[in-house]
Amino acid sequence: MNISPLQKARYEYTPKLPGMLRHGIADICVKEGEATQSVADQDKIKALFPNTYGKPEITFEKGQNTSAAKKQVVGVILSGGQAPGGHNVVCGLYDALKATNPENVLYGFKGGPSGLIEDKYLIFDDEYINEFRNTGGFDIIGSGRTKLETEEQFAIASEVCKKHGITAIVIIGGDDSNTNAAVLAEYFAAHNTGVQVIGCPKTIDGDLKNEDIECSFGFDTATKTYSELIGNIERDCNSAKKYWHFIKVMGRSASHVALECALKTQPNICLVSEEVAEKKMSLSQIADYIADSVAERSANGMNFGVAIIPEGVVEFVPEFSVLIQEINELLAGSKADEFNALPTWADKYAFIEKGLTKESMAVFAILPQAIQQQLFLERDPHGNVQVSLIESEKLFSALVKDKLEARRAAGTYSGKFSPLHHFLGYEGRCAFPSNFDADYCYSLGYNAFMLIQYGYNGYLSKVSNLSAPASEWVAGGMPITKMMNIERRHGEDKPVIRKALVELDGAPFKYFESHREEWAKDTCFVYPGAIQYYGPTEVCDITTITLALEHQK
Predict the structure, then answer these.
(1) What is the pLDDT of residue 349?
(2) Distance of CA 385 to the CA centre of its chain
């Protein structure tokens, strides 16, 4: 296998562990806290998880290890979309397992949760795992999006574990994956299988966090990667001085990525979906907000700028959400076939006009034709519009252009507006993990094995105090049920982990809010540059501005 000089060098990097995990397994004891309860719907969640609900949070401390000595055979699963650092979770788990007992075994189930159901696996050894240390990607065993949620799947999983003598499963994933982990843990406990389930918090979107989980892994690296590219675009923008760049970044449900990138790079505009929803902003109001910046900068001789657009922002625009709902109804059942059979866009447009309410048709009519047609592209498995396919960066630049032309006609704008478009998504999901993510992920994996060794089930590996140096990080665990509430999914009440949206009264947004007026009219760009792995600590080990602001004293 050919490897780059950086990959070769990163093999030699030794991830930093929290202080209490640095002195050997034998010197780690457990401190149990108070019993926990779910964030909402306590009675319903307790009824669904009678064997795993209400357990205490725990913290690992220096002291005599009182866990029972036994051979551990552990299975690990990578679930959902890739996030930088996933390999180091597996490496940390493997190293802790082998340090405790060289006879311990780690199975890697291939292709995500389906690997467990289909019994597709590999058994890790030193030679194989060493190829993936401190590298990006999930190619060590692959990932997948199969959900573990049916009794039949749980029964098969139980049989596979029994076949291999597996004592614990570690599921590395986001909110949905860890919800599945909690349900699987409950099943294993209810059926006395003796198999534990531990989760690890992964997602570049940053929306798996709460008072206990300060940050999901991958968020640090992904936002640094996007911010490098945004900074490069800003520098080009400030050099050429003739383009407005509209940059869409990942974040379907929450705007954490967009906000962190804005804090790092100080663009002229950054939309925050949660604010759009709070203020019930219309597409027209958002376009006017951006056009105001374009016009003011133009009046000062600056016909250039940068706007950051969160991937899912259109879903937070109330009138657009209603439009989506009406389109879903319009194409329900056989009506979709009737629509698709129409020969021309004009025919389809007439069909749409007849089927939408007057209010939704008014919203539809202002959309550029390309965006209109994107709303009628292939549906998701439930027959709904795939909002993620909408090129919102092009939508907003087109709406801004219309606003500026109206101002030009009214004599209030005379500048030039030349938009360019970018989508930064997959570029950030498999980057070489930053030192922070390499350390954090290794710690999460190492810590996951400690939870297994002490017999915990249905827990999430937890490492906190992350804004401090790694030596001061605190390792422990929390019951996954603590993060859960009941939500309506596809017509049924389902227990799910509540997504963490941007808090508009939180320190990161408040800082952004206090500076964005200046950034909108002046050129205050910041150029973060590439992720640094070697050099001064203040450059190489720095974490996100979001985390720093949330924990500043």
Answers:
(1) 94
(2) 21
137: pLDDT strictly greater than 90: yes
Q: Residue 16: which of 510, 506, 500, 468 has the closest Cα?
A: 468
> CA-CA distance, 303 to 320, in Å (whole number)?
30
pTM tops 0.85: yes
- Record the tokens describing residue 92, joined without a space: 């940390």
DSSP string, 284-341: HHHHHHHHHHHHHHHHTT---EEEEEETTGGGGSHHHHHHHHHHHHHTSTTHHHHHHT
In this structure, what token pair is assigned to residue 75? 């299975």
Which residues have C-beta within 8 Å of that of residue 264, sequence separation ≥ 6? 223, 224, 227, 230, 231, 526, 528, 545
Nearest to 200, CA basis, from 88, 353, 106: 88
Binding-site positions read: 81, 175, 203-205, 242-243, 250-252, 311, 426-429
Residues 6+ apart with CB under 8 A from 415: 294, 295, 298, 299, 303, 404
Q: Cβ(75)–Cβ(116) under 8 Å?
A: yes
Q: What is the pLDDT of residue 37?
A: 96
DSSP helix/strand/coil, 28: strand
**Average pLDDT of the residues of the chain:** 95
Radius of gyration from C-alpha coordinates of the chain: 25
Question: Which residues line the annotated binding site for substrate?
Answer: 203-205, 242-243, 250-252, 311, 426-429
pLDDT at 383: 66
Tokens of 432: 């070489």
CA dist., res. 10 & res. 38, Å (int): 40
38 vs 359: CA distance, rounded Å: 40
Percent of the chain whose pLDDT exceeds 90: 86
CA within 13 Å, CB half, 5: 0
Distance from C-alpha of 135 to C-alpha of 432, rounded to nearest angstrom: 5
Active site residues: 205
Q: Where are the beta strands (DSSP E) in 22-72?
A: 28-35, 56-62
Instruction: Evaluate whether 210 touches 512 at the Cβ level (below 8 Å).
Output: no
Angle between helix 435-453 and helix 86-100 axes, rounded to 10 deg: 40
Distance between CA atoms of 491 and 159, rounded to whole angstroms?
31
CA distance 354 to 374: 19
Give 404-413 pLDDT, tens digit per residue. 999 999 999 9
Residue 61 CA to residue 454 CA, distance in Å, equals 13
Encoded tokens for 217: 């892994």
Annotated binding site for Mg(2+): 175
CA distances from 457 to 28, 215, 331, 460 (A): 19, 22, 44, 9
